[in-house]
Amino acid sequence: MTSTTATAPKQALPDAVKLLIGAGGIYGAFLYYGSLQEDVFRYASPQDGTAFKQAWFLQVLEALANVIIGFAGMQLMGPTPNIPLTMFGISGASQVTAKACTSLALANGLSFPVATLAKSGKMAPVMAGSLLLGGAKYSVREYLQVAAIIGGTAIVSMGKKKGGSNSLLGVVYIILSLALDGVTAGFQKRLKASTAKVGVKPKPYDFMFWTNLFMCLTAAVVALGLGEFTSGLAFCTANPEILSKIVKFSLCSAVGQSFIFYTIANFDPLVLSTVTTTRKIFSVLLSIFLKGHSLSATGWSGIALACGGIMSEMQSKSSGKKKDHAH
Questions:
Q1: Residues 229-271: pLDDT tens digits?
Q2: Which residues does 177 contact at the CB level (< 8 Å), separation at least 6?
Q3: Do residues 313 and 123 make contact, with C-beta atoms less than 8 angstroms apart?
Q4: What's the distance, Cα to Cα, between the start and end of the chain in Å?
Q5: Nearest CA among 73, 125, 66, 126 for reference residue 92
Q6: What does the pLDDT read at residue 106?
Q7: What is the C-alpha to C-alpha distance for residues 45 and 52, in angstroms, rounded to an integer?
Q8: At what angle do helices 168-197 and 112-119 cross, to 10 degrees?
Q9: Which of 12, 79, 102, 193 would be 8's cystine partner, CB 3.0–4.6 Å?
């Protein structure tokens, strides 16, 4: 079966169909993923009303699902030998810490729409790091885009109607997560440089397997240190309903990653960026409409401002890419 697909001509499927498969898979998996993530951290045990707080335990299970699918994909496509693993280890550790901080933000009372919008402001730490370390220059438009995303997110968090508070600790965790996103981006650049230096070109599933293996190991060490394996397993045993949500959440992550790699393999990175960015906007809107978040008019204006910044950033990337192709 694999040999026929491998030797099939490039035009086996029209690009429109490939895009439908890639984008449809990413939307389906990650919209459900976001919904499940919110459900996990809003869950209150029927027995004693306690909430699930074991963010590192959750990261172990999510990374493990990605390791299993990544390993299967790697065996099907053929693993790449002699991959230098040091940077995979560092990149995986910072990536899983960023994800755990997002989960901890939700566990500490930050609402899902605010957390998701805040995570769309990834450009902010990247710009700050480049300005401080690299002396980079940015256009007024780029500053305005970041200001719109951050400002819009702040307005949404303040424009929630009564009964929906966003805790200070939750805000601290999401800022930490954003800072770690900036650090991870730097490590990923160094990872690509280190593999190119030794003349090795890892395939998508190599990236998925090795990154998630180190993410899983890092999360397991932290979860063990914090005693989250015991408390997490005890919570899941006492509340089997949440266990099914966690299993589905982990599977959605791994399936979504596979569709991301499918899209990368068939299209320009910009296509993927457009799909994942618009997915975040839909996740925010779905959460507001389906999970009972009540927003004031001020809150909605914040959503519009942040989404405007996100769409503007996407559009400028697109026009920049066209210029690059024109040269």
A1: 999 999 999 999 999 999 999 999 999 999 998 888 788 777 8
A2: 98, 99, 101, 102, 105, 119
A3: yes
A4: 41
A5: 66
A6: 94
A7: 8
A8: 40
A9: 12
The whole-angstrom separation of Cα 304 and Cα 160 is 14
Is the distance from CB of 185 to CB of 124 less than 8 angstroms?
no
Q: Is the pLDDT confidence value at 114 over 90?
A: no
Q: Which residue has the tokens 């710009």?
A: 127
Q: Residue 243 is which amino acid?
A: L
Can you state the percent helix, strand and coil of the chain, rounding each to 5? 80, 0, 20
- Unique residue bearing structure tokens 């990368």: 264
Phi, psi for residue 160 in degrees, rounded to 5: -75, 140
The one-letter code for the residue type at 104 is: L
Has residue 93 got a pLDDT over 80?
yes
Name which of 25, 17, 9 is nearest 261 in CA terms. 25
pLDDT tens by residue, 171-181: 899 999 988 98
**191 three-state secondary structure:** helix
pLDDT at res. 10: 46
Q: Which residues of 105-137 are buried (b: 16+ CB within 10 A; e: fewer)?
A: bbbbbbbbbbbbbbbbbbbbbbbebeeeeeeee
List the structure tokens of 230. Answer: 């015991």
